[in-house]
């Protein structure tokens, strides 16, 4: 099968790979590049576990072809902590006991990050809206909503 | 046509562990040269936090902080047998096995400390912070760090222990059904408050107040995780979920999360959780298994609340708007 | 969450250092950084992908299977059929002596539910495996199917599973697990009211965010490491050992970090065939359910039907309860004989009733085999019991919560299974619920205790 070159920035590092045409970004990240933080929960865009940030926007990597990402700036949960210091969202998920099996967590954190990047002080309704594309089967969502609200408060206090 | 309110109650119990017993779990515990403790198991963490709870149980039993315990589980080349994670058995069965293994290791640890301190092992106690003290004379002490070094390099002792927990299998008597299903039961009572739109059949669960009796909350925050998530799943079962919506007809089964319905983050009931503790006689520190039972009482509580609201009984799960509308129609037809 | 320590304070062990403390979870930092390793996060060079050819029919005889076109498909490395599986007919509970073996790893001569695995295709890529699977030709003779449990139990119904010989599981007690306590007919005879009601549920999916699967790697020494999300390590290893007729010492299972289970991952479905693939090709193999397979192929919670007949007195006492429970196992046993039996052990619920009659059936139909799920054998029973309790209370004009106090079990009460009640706490849960929900009950109920009989 014909290979196509893809080149993008992943969490600040340059990556270049040859992939089969039609390879999803999820497979390219997990199987080629070795970033397994995006998870494959459905491979059909209905669970959100594969969520990543492409050029500042939330994207489902299972429905994004790798070959369409040339030149893109891609962010995943594995690159969120800086120099070993957790991002406030990660800290808030820990403190709120918002993870159980953890499989949905990287996708949830990506969705929450895009929300907080655009909306510093989201309302509960805005948090719910931002998370509504991500399935969690363990927590009943409430601890996750609380974690995002807590992280938002921490962020805005730091800014103030 | 109106939005109608109702509330319903349900009370339940739930057995801990495999029905009729006969489900073994083993554990091994050993100390590293510097007094950290390795718990070796083959139990599975499904997300409920089994690893963390086993660490706390081992730490409490040995007398060290939890962060001095390492959990090595679910590698069949190293871990001794565990029947598995199901039937609300993990904490109860594996926890008991860990306690037994940790007690044996603790005994060796105290013996080595006794030799170092030149006292009897029975005169020693742990402070929970990593030190072993002489009872009544706490100035005379030795750190577990030093005890482990001594055991490894000086005294040639293995600070280790083996644990096994098995409730003997009960066989039901054929004609009477006399049997011992379980050694302990968790309990719950839930009150649900709903609104039902009698024009669309749509049900909104406004509040759900759950009282759970779980023996002992070994880690209250983790218990809360299970109970909140379970309460959500109970409501989900009551109102949304099925792979065969027209059972026994096999058609129209959902194949993805767009078709298989569950409440999303915008559909949550206001959830209250109250926990009571009646320690079980044979549970680790009195614990029972709360993981399954916490998702059960919401289902009948919601069903009863729907009846209270609109006066129709939906005796088939899930309680969908379609079923409510059909029942209301039948009721109106008299 | 609130911990109400006023209840049972006399029996709680205090002065503990680690127990009862809300310590942070040691696995959470891995979860929030995406570093936690689930089975599918293992990737091996040269790994093959396994896809199943599945039955499009509910019940059919297989006349022939033609895999020649599939084998020629580019990227295909191996195609497996029933004859490749050393011990193809198995049942998972055989390890605890609950037989007979009644299920095929790959269909042999017959399919008994729509979605049953018939042929396994191993290929270099997932896409090649899927394309080749579509090229397998299976010639079926469609047979009459039965979907309804009551129909299945009628004489002359299509036989679902020849290994049982009838459409129900045969317990040592006969066609159902029985509990007999007191004299239920005499109880109905003395009752002021009798209420018989029927309850029904549909199958429910566990829907974990991580689908069922495994990755198998040959270790190069005749041993195979299987990275799996099973809920039961040795249960799966030992069953794989039986199916593959391979000593357990050749198998190495690694797991324990699972993206949600809820009972759905206690079946032994993906591991044996993936290990066989790895053995026959000498290559690593992954077999991971698609979301559609997870929804419609993996075992759901069984559909159940529960018929409850109660005799109740005007003062609120339930004097007789007869329960008939039916568990729809689908085409194969898996854990359902156990689940139906657990139902018999659970009824009549947490209430003290002097006359009890329980029959629970495990019924075979031509649908996706059901199996364990959170609350196995109990969840649907509790729905039925507790809706019935509500109906009974309204029937005699009593408050539903007070009605439960009248019947609640307490320490020392004899249960229908001839075990004295120990460690009861239903009354205290209801007392606290009465307060929390502002649902007042009479003072005599608030003064009750699980410890002793008599108010």
TrEMBL record, chain A:
Protein's UniProt keywords contain Lipoprotein: no
Any GO MF annotation of the entry: metal ion binding
Keyword field: 2Fe-2S, Iron, Iron-sulfur, Metal-binding, Oxidoreductase
Pfam families per the UniProt record, alphabetical: Fer2 (PF00111), Fer2_2 (PF01799)
Family annotation (PROSITE patterns): 2FE2S_FER_1 (PS00197), 2FE2S_FER_2 (PS51085)
Tagged with keyword Oxidoreductase: yes
Domain 2Fe-2S ferredoxin-type: 4-80
Family matches, as InterPro entries: 2Fe-2S-bd, 2Fe-2S-bd_dom_sf, 2Fe-2S_ferredoxin-like_sf, 2Fe-2S_ferredoxin-type, 2Fe2S_fd_BS, Beta-grasp_dom_sf, Diverse_Oxidoreductases
Name this polypeptide is given: (2Fe-2S)-binding protein
Native species: Mesorhizobium waimense
TrEMBL record, chain B:
GO molecular function, one term: oxidoreductase activity
Any Pfam family matching the protein: MoCoBD_2
Annotated ranges, domain Aldehyde oxidase/xanthine dehydrogenase second molybdopterin binding: 3-267
Taxonomy, superkingdom: Bacteria
Protein name: Xanthine dehydrogenase family protein molybdopterin-binding subunit
Source organism per UniProt: Mesorhizobium waimense
Automatic annotation (TrEMBL), chain C:
SUPFAM superfamilies: CO dehydrogenase molybdoprotein N-domain-like, Molybdenum cofactor-binding domain
Taxonomy, superkingdom: Bacteria
InterPro entries in alphabetical order: Ald_Oxase/Xan_DH_a/b, Ald_Oxase/Xan_DH_a/b_sf, Ald_Oxase/xanthine_DH-like, AldOxase/xan_DH_MoCoBD1, AldOxase/xan_DH_Mopterin-bd_sf
Pfam families per UniProt: Ald_Xan_dh_C (PF01315), MoCoBD_1 (PF02738)
Residue ranges annotated for the Aldehyde oxidase/xanthine dehydrogenase a/b hammerhead domain, each copy included: 33-144
Coiled-coil region list: none
Keywords for this protein: Molybdenum, Oxidoreductase
Name listed for the protein in its UniProt record: Xanthine dehydrogenase family protein molybdopterin-binding subunit
